[in-house]
Amino acid sequence: MLPIAAAVAVAQLVAAAAGGGYWFDEVYMLAIGRHHLDWGSADQPPVVPVLAALMDRGAPGSIIALRLPAVVATAAAVVVAALIARELGADRRAQALTAGAQATALWITLAGHWLTPYTVEPVQWLVLVWLLVRWTRVRDDRLLPVLGLVVGVAAETKFQVLLLCAVLAVAVLALGPRELLGRPMVLLGAGIAALIALPTLIWQAAHGWPQVQMGAVVASEADALYGGRTGVALALVLVPGIVGVPLTLYGLWRLLRAPELRPYRFLAATFLALFAFFVATPGRPYYLGGLDGLLAAAGAVGLQRRREAGRTRLRWVVWPACAVATAAAVATLVVSTSITRSDVGEGIARRTAAAYHALPPDQQPRTVVMGQSYILAAYLDGYSTEYGLPQVYSSNRSYGYFPPPPEGADAVLYVGSGPDEVTPYFADVRKVADGGADASVWLCTGRREPWASFWPRLRHLTVT
């Protein structure tokens, strides 16, 4: 499993180096970390922005350095998936198969080097599952405070872990091991998790729980992005990849039916409940990526039991499938690097900077830049130092909850498909750079109202 994890790390580092530009979600994390670091933001807890800020502080402007935590998390997930397989009774071959399935999962290979919450989250969920599986096997209560620590850090990364824990608790109550819920160390672990997550929860409460509103936003985007509930359901099944799909399906069946895995049946029930929830809501196709390694481990152990019983016909399928999955993973990495190599964000920043520097010298200090969406704003933020841009603002997502522009800023360079949202608040609006349908630049001057009075009216979470 360690050689596979090392190979994944090297491949992801190569992809990180080959990609010439930022992925929009990671430059969003970078922007929050650089300029707006707090205990929370509208749609993101602080762990990944903190990581982005630390990496940027250590190596300013280095995309490779920025992506190192994601690469480590992706490689570590391979190891933890294999450890889960070992806890379930896997030999080295079954552990290697599990590690290979985790390493070649489609979403992992596509996004494993981007520093985003959904790249860091899978290893956290896998560690959580490993602790539960190990406790179920050995009943060592010292694992439970560690479990609370993992949950707390995961909650400061993405809030989905809170839903995972709630569903796990119900599944344990229904299917066992019920004694887990009565252990004093569980309360200690829950206290540790709550203490770590508390600052972000307080931030959310103080700002009207925008994260709760994000559920409706994510659901509203499902039709356009994934084809609605049917598309989300299909993607959730296919995300594990060529080896992972049959292995996770077989592992799910084994967790539900195999007598030897009866103590872990609550994990299968948790997966099914979350699958149903994320299809019904609907959610993102990668939301269950942190549980696929568990199912792959159960499937690998099932194949091992077949082999030990002398039923070896599948050996002619498994390893060729692993070879095909590896090739597909390499191809996916190539696609990933081509996505970021397009330098879309840098082109937007360059065009906006040209418009800014063309302004009269006395106007520049009184002008701010505003992106129509958080994506545009993040791209502009990410390249702001390189191209000499002023402070970047947006009314979208977390940007809308950051402080508004200063009252001394009476002009805006607005970047997007159209400045309709700000037109009522400025006397003159004219296009100064053509960026096509989505990223043209408008100069808005003659502000009619104080920023503080109309900024809350602009705030929104939906990408337009």
What's the mean pLDDT score?
93
Main sheet properties: 5 strands, mixed
- Helix/strand structural class: alpha/beta
Terminal-residue CA separation? 44 Å
How would you sum up the global shape?
elongated
Strand fraction equals 5-15%
Q: How many separate domains?
A: 2
Oligomer: single chain
Which residues sit in consecutive blocks of at least 5 with pLDDT less than 50? none
Secondary-structure element pattern, one letter each: HHHHHHHHHHHHHHHHHHEHHEEEEH
| Number of DSSP strand runs | 5
Radius of gyration: 24 Å
Number of helices: 21
| Helix content class | 55-70%
Strand order of the largest sheet: 2-1-3-5-4
